[in-house]
Specification:
By secondary structure, the chain is an all-alpha fold. Helices cover 80% and strands 1% of the residues.
Length: 285
């Protein structure tokens, strides 16, 4: 398949993941244990995917110490994100968090300037401003004439951390290969989640309560992320990531159709379009 096909499929699976993530987060009573159960399932699926897509006799580890330094940073960022994933999904609806997710692209862009020596220009600065405007717009409460900081804390912080992780994906895929890196960013963050302590009883309860939903989220997430990495291995990040960002709009629409998110529909659509346009300008120019 070409990189465009990988991108389209990635958008579909990221959108489906968002739908089920919102459902599980709303009914979960163990938001500390749920991430561990979820990442455990996702890790198992990533290992299966690796075994089916990789020739073990061609597998090798990188020799550069920088590879392991970047991997350590990615582990910290993705582990921290997983701690907040379901708390963020429970705090706001799918349409809102989809718009806020553009913040991760903005953060990834800023760090890409340093890591990949990309340049900033006028169009990127406009895109930067548009992403900020979309987030403020979606979080602004007209009745109170203020921004709802309390409910938006977890969504905003989680997306900042995710953006830091995303900025390292290109490095990880190049150093370790797409298939093996896809395992590492699940296995190692799981170790991070287990530290310093966790309750096996709560993890088991969370897994029993929502095993089907978490399995679907994990399946969709692993596949979507794998497809994104495949696209990144075939085309520049400046082409892949802006198109993957279309899931911001598709997720808003999916929330309205499948989750009956009827509140502020026009506002969400406008904010998602602004966010997508901003992300496109940041990463395509």
């Amino acid at each position: 398949m070409n990189w465009i096909t990988y991108v389209v499929l990635s958008i579909v699976f990221f959108t489906a993941q968002g739908i089920f993530q919102r459902i599980v987060a709303q009914r979960s009573s163990h938001l500390k244990a749920t991430p561990i159960a979820f990442v455990s399932i996702a890790t198992a699926m990533s290992v299966v995917l690796f075994l089916f897509t990789t020739r073990l006799n061609s597998f090798s580890l990188p020799k550069s110490y920088l590879a392991y330094f970047f991997l350590l940073l990615a582990t910290i960022f993705y582990g921290s994100y997983e701690k907040l994933r379901f708390k963020a999904a429970a705090a706001v609806d799918l349409g809102t968090i989809s718009v806020i997710s553009s913040l991760s692209l903005l953060v990834a862009f800023l760090f890409s300037l340093m890591l990949y020596h990309e340049s900033a220009n006028f169009m990127k600065l406009i895109g930067f401003a548009m992403v900020i405007v979309s987030i403020v717009f979606i979080s602004y409460k007209k009745s109170h004439k203020t921004v709802d900081y309390k409910n938006y804390f977890y969504p905003v912080v989680s997306q900042i951390i995710l953006g830091l992780g995303w900025s390292l994906d290109k490095k990880g895929a190049l150093y370790f290969g797409v298939n093996f890196y896809n395992i590492l960013v699940w296995v190692l963050p799981l170790m991070f989640l287990l530290f310093p302590k966790f309750s096996i009883t709560e993890v088991v309860k969370a897994a029993k309560r929502d095993w089907f939903g978490m399995s679907l989220i994990a399946l969709f997430n692993v596949i979507a992320y794998y497809l994104q990495l495949k696209a990144l291995s075939l085309a520049p990040a400046s082409k892949v990531i802006p198109l993957v960002n279309l899931y911001v709009i598709t997720s808003v629409l999916a929330g309205m159709v499948f989750l009956r998110e009827d509140k502020d529909q026009l506002k969400k659509i406008l904010a998602s379009i602004i966010a997508f346009a901003g992300g496109f300008l940041i990463l395509a120019f």
